[in-house]
Amino acid sequence: MILVTGGAGYIGSVCAEQLLARGYEVCVFDNLSRGHREAVPPGAAFIEGDLEDRAAVSDVFRSRPIRAVMHFAAYALVGESMEKPNLYFRKNFGNALNLLEATIEAGVDRFVFSSTCAIFGDQVAPPIEEDAPKAPVNPYGESKLAFEKALEWSRRSHGLNYFALRYFNACGATNERGERHEPETHLIPLVLRAAAGLSDGIHVFGDDYPTPDGTCIRDYVHVLDLADAHIRALEAPGEKSGCYNVGVGRGDSVREVIEAVRKATGKDFPVIVVPRRPGDPPELVAANAKIRRELAWEPQHDIHSAVSSAWEFFQREQ
Ligand SMILES: NC(=O)c1ccc[n+]([C@@H]2O[C@H](COP(=O)([O-])OP(=O)(O)OC[C@H]3O[C@@H](n4cnc5c(N)ncnc54)[C@H](O)[C@@H]3O)[C@@H](O)[C@H]2O)c1
């Protein structure tokens, strides 16, 4: 049985769904603070619990035959992390340590962690290699980087096999599950809201960046490709550990995403250019040779299939 923390959230629920589809038993542990009970796939066991509760976390390992952990549960709002840095260290580092200690105590030796490209900061030239300098520009990225280090020390001291998967921009949906953050800060769902007429338009934060169309470029990776990366990490044979970028290796600008949404939805909507936000690098694109080579991961989706699937999910949810 695979323990999936944060399995009521966006990426965790899709991974739980895909694990079940491949015949795994799944136990979701989530406090529903930022997720949705109905996102937990019906075939998964569900424990409503908080990672802050160390005893409750240990109980999970005592009461279920857990053989690997996928840890998605976290707070992931960059702006909130700037306002409340210690909340992020508590949630993303302290809580994760509770889980890590309980994992090691239970003798479970495979741990897959949702890391992020935010560990790199804003001074790295694309495409970003795994060993590029790490200089997070917000407490969110710093808290994730700190936990990567705890994982590496657990490997050295306890023989833990860990995979820190550094997602770039997750996007897209399956037939049943997709992105429903509240508040929503991610570009694609915000553009879809604009397309549906639920907002006054899409705000573009700066169009004077040194990129071909002046807007920021990001690497959008479909949530199904992310789930596939997790399952490959889970199934990788032997003693294996490491940090992997998970991105498609090409970038799309904000304007390109807006065009993809116009094409997928057939709708037009206002685009409102506003000043740059501090800390937004012009371009974040993954170098992904390592995960391709070591886990034979190959992304199957592009921005157009991601946007179309997100639009279908969005319409079903209205
Ligand atoms: N969405 C992205 O583009 C992206 C990019 C890089 C990394 N990540 C990372 O991927 C992971 C999942 O992201 P998401 O977009 O699915 O987030 P999400 O907010 O949709 O899901 C997180 C889930 O964790 C749960 N949770 C939070 N704190 C908890 C706690 N103390 N105990 C138990 N459950 C708790 C929430 O209720 C929620 O269901 C996060 O760790 C995030 O940092 C996401």
Supply the CATH class of one domain: Alpha Beta
Which CATH architecture of one domain would you pick?
Answer: 3-Layer(aba) Sandwich
| Hetero ligands | nicotinamide-adenine-dinucleotide
The total count of strands amounts to 14
Radius of gyration over C-alpha positions, nearest whole angstrom: 19 Å
Provide a descriptive summary of the structure in words.
With 318 residues, the chain is an alpha/beta fold. The protein has a domain of 193 residues: Rossmann fold (3-Layer(aba) Sandwich), CATH 3.40.50. The chain is built from 10 helices and 14 strands. Strands 3-2-1-4-5-6-11 form a 7-stranded parallel beta sheet, with helices on both faces. Helix 2 runs parallel beside helix 4 and helix 4 runs parallel beside helix 5. The longest helix is centred in the first third of the chain and has 21 residues. 47% of the residues are buried. Bound molecules: nicotinamide-adenine-dinucleotide. The site of nicotinamide-adenine-dinucleotide has 28 residues, from helix 1, helix 4, strand 5 and strand 7.
